[in-house]
Design goal:
Blueprint: H1 2-19, H2 26-51, H3 59-74, H4 83-107, H5 111-130, H6 132-135, E1 141-142, E2 147-148, E3 151-152, E4 161-162, E5 165-166, H7 169-193, H8 195-205, H9 207-212, H10 217-243, E6 245-246, H11 253-266, H12 271-290, H13 310-328, H14 332-347, H15 359-367
Antiparallel strand pairs: 1-6, 2-3, 4-5
Helix pairs in contact: 2-7, 2-10, 2-11, 2-12, 3-4, 3-5, 3-10, 4-10, 7-8, 7-10, 8-10, 11-12, 11-14, 12-13, 12-14
């Protein structure tokens, strides 16, 4: 019975996510796609910061490597490789970039690693602006569409209609993002539940104790950084496919701070928490932009100076959410949800078959011959 219940907890959300493209318009599908891409990157950062205890402010750099790596490898100018191969190579390229930086990650930690990774963001932004032949410079470059076995993730390539619903680029990219997110989810949970996850948790709790137990501190730190970089590269490539055009200014320090906000709000060390935080931080500014006319104290995009725009208002809100989480729920939304479930379980009344007999019934039973 418990196995069926656990399977139901997984299959029901998957089923809901699979049928949503039949009922949602393009705006909501784009929000979902960006949220899934952000969740992939947040899960990777959570493995590094939440599980291994390594602070990183350079996540935006590896997102940019994945995004621009795919755009260059699959586009013109560039090698013009098949887009599926370019996607895989872009993820590997982000892993190589993480591997080149991993000796630093293996030797320093805490605020020192945070400052070191911060340098990556500024260095990467400078390269994106100056390497015009690869990145397109300030104006960025267009992103070639993905194609798998002749099936293109664009409008009408080929034309697909299911149950009367035409499947355009948003619907197709939704299922691509869902598949990639599912792959990320299960591989991350496998890492956390296996020996690498236990070693990373031991490193986070006490390096000395982990070294005594035989954990290679530098090796596991470096491996966590490489894996996190590959997750970020995959997220960057998926974001590039969703945006269809990428510019250097998107991959700045603010993006790295957004990802830190995701894992803090969702809950450090939790795959589900990182996903919840990614959905919250990603969807909030987009929703506020669409409904700015109906929200108090929020001005529509392009309004006069001095007013609070949707993006700024969203940053204020999830900044306040970070403060509230740190004060009242240090384990994030995931820990808060677990505590609420446990409390509701304790308050659930016993069924008549499981309720203990009353005292009068017990005495009557004792005197019954």
């Amino acid at each position: 019975m418990s196995d069926l219940r656990e399977r139901g907890k997984v299959l029901l959300p998957v089923l809901v996510l699979c049928v949503l493209p039949f009922y949602l318009d393009a705006f909501w599908l784009r929000i979902g796609l960006f949220a899934m891409a952000a969740a992939i990157g947040a899960v990777g950062l959570n493995l590094l910061a939440g599980t291994a205890g390594q602070l990183s402010l350079g996540h935006a750099f590896f997102l940019a490597v994945g995004a621009y790596g795919y755009a260059w490898l699959a586009g013109e100018p560039g090698p013009g490789l098949p887009s599926a191969l370019a996607l895989v190579l872009a993820v590997l390229l982000a892993g190589v970039a993480g591997g080149l930086f991993s000796p630093v990650a293996g030797r320093v930690r805490g605020i020192y690693l945070g400052v070191a990774t911060l340098a990556l963001v500024f260095l990467g932004h400078h390269v994106l602006l100056t390497a015009d032949s690869v990145t397109g410079g300030f104006n960025g470059r267009s992103v070639p569409p993905l194609s798998l076995g002749g099936f293109g993730f664009t409008d009408g390539d080929p034309e697909v209609v299911l149950l009367g619903v035409p499947f355009g680029a948003e619907e197709r990219l939704w299922y691509l993002g869902l598949a990639l997110f599912a792959l990320t989810w299960f591989t991350a949970r496998g890492i956390l539940r296996g020996r690498p996850g236990r070693a990373l948790v031991a490193l986070r709790d006490s390096e000395t104790a982990a070294a005594v137990m035989g954990v290679d501190v530098a090796r596991y730190r470096s491996a966590a950084f490489v894996v996190s970089s590959m997750y970020a590269g995959l997220a960057g490539a998926l974001l590039a496919l969703g945006f269809r055009r990428i510019v250097p200014d998107y991959f700045g320090l603010a993006l790295s701070v957004d990802y830190l906000a995701m894992i803090v709000i969702g809950g450090l060390g939790s795959v589900a928490g990182a996903t919840a935080g990614a959905v919250f931080v990603t969807a909030l500014p987009l929703l506020m932009t669409r409904y700015a006319d109906h929200l108090p104290l929020v001005a529509a995009p392009g309004s006069a100076e001095g007013s609070v725009g949707p993006t700024e208002a969203a940053r204020y809100l999830y900044g306040a959410a970070i403060v509230l989480v740190l004060l009242y729920a240090p384990d994030g939304l995931h820990g808060l949800t677990s505590r609420v479930r446990a409390r509701l379980g304790r308050r659930r009344p016993l069924t008549p078959a499981a309720s203990p007999p009353s005292a009068s019934a017990a005495r009557a039973k004792e005197h019954t011959p």
